[in-house]
Amino acid sequence: MAKYSVFMTDSIFPDTAIERDELGLADAELTFSSAPDADTLIREGRDCDAMLVVYAKVDASVINSLTRCKVIVRAGIGFNNVDLEAATKAGIMVANVPDYCLDEVADHTMALALSMIRRTCLLNRKVSDGVWSIADAKPMPPLRGAVFGLFGCGAIGQQVGRRAAAFGMDVVGYDPYAPEATFRDNGIRRVTDFDDFLASVDVLSLHVPLTDDTHHVIDRENLEKMKPSAYVINTSRGGLINEQDLQEVLEEGRLAGAGIDVLETEPPADAPPLSRLANTVITPHAAFYSEASVVELRKKASREIIRTLQEGQPKFWVNRN
Ligand SMILES: NC(=O)c1ccc[n+]([C@@H]2O[C@H](COP(=O)([O-])OP(=O)(O)OC[C@H]3O[C@@H](n4cnc5c(N)ncnc54)[C@H](O)[C@@H]3O)[C@@H](O)[C@H]2O)c1
Question: Which of 16, 75, 177, 310 fits a 20 to 30 Å CA distance from 230?
Fold first, then answer.
C-alpha cells in the first residue's frame, strides 16, 4: 500500500500519467473520481491525504467530509471553485499554481484585443462570405495612442501591459491592492478612481480574481460609464461580467465589442448568445493553453502536493493567515 493517497476530482487533460509519475516518486497513489459532483467527491474522496482539483466545485459539503486531507491543490491560477473559508475552518491548506501560463494568457489577451480592434474575425467571416471590402472594417482607430486599461495589475496584468505598450498604447491600471512599485516598474499609469478609469479606457482588460467583491463587477451600470467605442476583454473569470448586461449593451451599440475567453457557466449548454453577435470573439477558456504550459502546470501541481505531504506546507499557500 502506498504511503499517501491523492484524490483527483476532475481533469481536462488526456490522461493522468504526469500526475501518477510525479506523485509516484513520493510513494503517493492517485485515484481519480468517477464524476465531479459533490456526492461522488464525498463518497470516493473523503479519506484522501491530498486533493487535486481542476474545475470541480469543492464546496463546504465536500470539504467538511474530508477525514484527514492536509491540502487541496488547485491545478491552475484561479481558485474560486474551492470554498476557502470552509477549508480554513477545517484546517485544510489550499494551494494554487500561480507561476505558469503567464505568457500564454497575456498573449491570448492581446490576440483577443487585436482581433477586436483590427476586426480580423469579422473581416475573415466577410471574406468567407465572398465580401472583399473594408466597409466592415470601419471605424478603425489606430492602436498607437489608444488607452489600454488593466483592471488588476498582478502577474498577468503586468505581462499584458508590457505587450500593449509595445503596440504604442497608453497603459493605465486600476488595482487598489498593488504597491506603487508595480505601476512604476511596469510603466503603468495608475488611476485610483474606478469610474474615471472606466471612462478613460479604449480597451478594458480584466485581470482580477473572481471573489465576492468582483462578482458581476462589469454590469450595465459600469459598462455605461465606458466610451461607446471601447472594447472589453476578459481572460480572467466569466463571473466578473454580467453576461446578460454585456449582451444588451453590445446590441444597443453602447460598446464597440467584447473578446471573451471565460464564461460564467463552462462549458455552456449551447452556443452562447454572445457568440452570435458580430462584434464579439469568444474562445473556450483557452488562454492558459500551450503544450508546454500544461505539462508545467501538471508537474507543479503534483509537486505542490508532495511538498506539503513531506515538508508540512505548500509553497503557494492561499489560505495562510
Ligand atoms: N483564461 C485562463 O485560461 C486563465 C489562466 C490563468 C489565470 N486566469 C485568471 O487570471 C486571473 C489573474 O491572474 P494573475 O496571475 O494576474 O493573478 P494575481 O493574483 O497575480 O493578480 C490579481 C490582481 O488583482 C488585484 N485585485 C484583486 N481584487 C481586486 C479588486 N477588487 N479591484 C482591483 N484589483 C483587484 C490584486 O491586487 C492583484 O494585483 C486569475 O484570478 C485567474 O482567474 C485565467
Answer: 177
Fold designation for 4-100+291-311: Rossmann fold (3.40.50)
- The domain ranges of the chain are 4-100+291-311, 102-282
Distance 133 CA to ligand 1 centre (A): 39
The answer, yes or no, to whether any atom of ligand 1 lies below 6 A from the CB of 111, is no
State if pTM tops 0.85: yes
Q: 54 CB less than 6 Å from ligand 1?
A: no
Question: In whole angstroms, how far apart are CA 101 and each of 39, 157, 197, 249?
Answer: 32, 13, 27, 32
Spatial separation of the C-alpha atoms in residues 140 and 119, rounded to whole Å: 8
Give the residue, out of 77, 110, 263, 266, with the most ligand 1 atoms within 8 A of its beta carbon, to mutate for a pocket test.
77
C-beta 36 within 6 A of ligand 1: no
What digits encode the pLDDT tens for the residues 244-254?
Answer: 999 999 999 99
Tens digits of residue pLDDT in 57-116: 999 999 999 999 999 999 999 999 999 999 999 999 999 999 999 999 999 999 999 999
- Residue partners of 137: CB distance under 8 A and separation at least 6: 119, 123
**CATH number given to 102-282:** 3.40.50.720
